Amino acid sequence: MVLCFKLLFGPTAAIFLSAVVILSCFTNVPYLHLDYYYTNGGSDLDHRSSSFLAAPAPPVPPPKCDIFRGEWVPDPESPQYTNETCNTIQQHQNCMFYGRPDLDFLKWRWKPHGCDLPRFDPHRFLQLVGNKTIGFVGDSLARNHMQSLTCLLSKVASPKYTSTTDHLILHYEGYNVTIYIVWSPFLVRSEEVAGQPGAFRLYLDEPDGKWLSVAPRFDYLLLSGANWFTRQSYFYEGGQLVGGMYVALNFTSDLTNQYSHRMAFRTALRALAAARFGGKVVLRTLSPMSHFEGGAYDAGGDCRRTRPYRANETAPMEGVELGFYTSQLEEFREAAVKGGLDLLLMDPTAAMLMRPDGHPSRYGHWPDEKRALYNDCIHWCLPGPIDAWNDMLLHMLSEST
Q1: 291, 359, 379, 395: which is the annotated catalytic residue?
Q2: What's the domain count of the chain?
Q3: Is residue 43 annotated as part of the catalytic site, yes or no?
Q4: Which residues of the chain are modeled with pLDDT < 70?
Q5: Domain span at residue 35?
Q6: Alpha-carbon torsion, ordered 394, 340, 26, 293, to 10 deg
Q7: Start and end of every Trichome birefringence-like N-terminal domain (predicted)?
Q8: In this predicted model, what pLDDT tens digit does every residue of 101-143 receive, in sequence order?
Q9: Which of 64, 98, 119 is a domain's end point?
């Protein structure tokens, strides 16, 4: 995917090649099998269909592997840490502590088609991002991702923690690496509605200052968000109420949560461009919301599977989930076309759709706890499948440096 955008938006990209790359990156067809050949003495690329009328020109070296398309394969060496070796696992993702009986879900790794994705190397990661700052901006899944990273790094280093009202900051002194986690589930300015617990006002054209104010400190900004856009919300633009989702309005509006999600990413990316953000922006696509079986999350739904799906067993995304995913791809593409940002797309969605076995389910709390708790089929056990996100992240940052 990173290669797609380098080809598409590089200054020497030919128009016809851009069209091919657009199709390859943004249609629902996973792969377009095209053969490329050198022409003009090896200085230009040309696409030709196979023909017995002429000898083929020397082939171009194959493109780099798409690390986001593949299968989960057995791996007896996983996991790289446990809840006993990492003390930063949040309680409700600590599946081993809460007695999950089946641990086979830990014995898999992500294997892209046609190449290998190296196991996360904590020394290499810290050396790569030495003297730099990484910002995770989003919701609890951004935090889940960050905690996976700190657990993987715990094999070689432990951070010092500081916190402010809006930020948790981790500093690895030996490498001068700083990691921020900024809670901003909507990416735009939001406020809970007084008297309506769980309902929010979303100001879709105003970026959330909690993360934008500290963004200049970041060398890498990981931007994500999806789940919170399924909550009761009122939509504001230009200071005016323009629509809402799951709330009563005194006017007719056809705007949905897919609109609010799209506009939030658009606003965030445009705000970064307007601020002349100089680091890399890594937009992470959504983590599945559809692994509940036997009911909705608040109606007895659960995720009790004990092994991954294969790619050909995975049901296609649809509905809100597909809408959110599509809007992320399209807003990323639009921002890349406009320029002004160093952008990378991190697309673990397909890989995670295959892991209904990797959620906490009931193993994020004790069975006899007297509080309203649902089976958790949204977050990921630590250790667990989400550790592959950091395999992907290290690969992407290595390739783009």
Answers
A1: 379
A2: 2
A3: no
A4: 1-63, 368, 370-373
A5: 1-64
A6: 60
A7: 64-116
A8: 999 999 999 999 999 999 999 999 999 999 999 999 999 999 9
A9: 64
